[in-house]
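Hi support team,

I'm filing this because I wasn't sure whether my run with magnesium ion finished correctly. The job status page said complete, but I'd like someone to confirm that the output block is well-formed before I use it downstream. Pasting the exact inputs I used:
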Amino acid sequence: MALLEITDLHAALEDGGKPILKGVSLTIRPGEVHAVMGPNGAGKSTLSNVIAGRPGFVVTGGSVTYDGQDLLALDADARARAGVFLAFQYPVEIPGVATATFLKTAINARRKAAGEPEIEALEFLKRMKANAKALGVVEDMLKRPVNVGFSGGEKKRAEVLQMAMLEPRLCLLDETDSGLDIDALRVVADGVNALRGPDRGMLVITHYQRLLDYIVPDVVHVLVDGRIVKSGDKALALDLEAHGYAQFAGAAA
Ligand code: ADP
Ligand code: MG
Ligand code: MG
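And here is everything the job wrote out:
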C-alpha cells in the first residue's frame, strides 16, 4: 500500500481564496524519497503545509491518503501523532521550552497515540545524545529554548534532530537546505540519509539541485504554478540545474 497518495489535490489560500495547488498527484511508497523542485511561488511550501495540516489553506478538491486513511480528515496534531513530520523552511521559536523537554514531550505524544508507554528517561537521554552527536548539535543547545537564538544552521540541525528522535513515517522537508553552508548541508543530509528506511517515506522540497547530490531521490517532480509538470529520476534534477525552470514556463497554464 502507498504511504502517501495525493490525487488531483487543489488548495487555495484561506484568506482571499487564491488558488495555489491546481491538481497535484503523486504517490510515495514506503522506502521512497521524492523530491519536489520548482521556482519560487510555485506552491512547494503550500503542498507540504497542506499535507501537514497547517492552517491558512483550504483544500478545494482531490484527496490525500496516508497509509490508506483520509489524511485530510485529521487535524495537524493528529497527523503528527500518526507519524507525519514537517521540517519547516522557517523553523519556529518556542520560548520557555527547552529543546530536550520539547523532544521528550513530542515523542511521548506519539507513543501515547500508538498506545505505547512513555519513553524511559535513560533511553531518551541515550538516544538524544547519540543523535545530537551525529548531527553536530552541542549539548548546550539541547538545554536552550527551542530555536531561540539558534543560528540558521543550528535550527536546521535541531530540526533533523527532532526528526531523528520522533522517527516519523513520513518526513516532509521544506527547503531544509536554505541558508546552509556546504559543511552544514552535508551534516543535515547525512542525518536525513540515516533516516532512510524501508518503512519510511520522504518528500524533500528544494529550490536547488545541490541538496539532491547528497540526498539522492528515487523520484523528482517539477512543480510549476501549482501543477506537477514533469516527473523523472534524479537526472531530472541535473537537467533543471543546467536548463532552469524557464523551459516549463506556460507548461502549467
Ligand atoms: P514556494 O514554496 O514554491 O515558493 P509557496 O507555496 O510558498 O511557494 O507560495 C505559493 C503562492 O502562494 C505564492 O504566490 C505565495 O505568494 C502565495 N502564498 C503562500 N502563502 C501565502 C500567505 N500566507 N499569504 C499570501 N500569499 C501566500
Ligand atoms: Mg518560496
Ligand atoms: Mg517555499
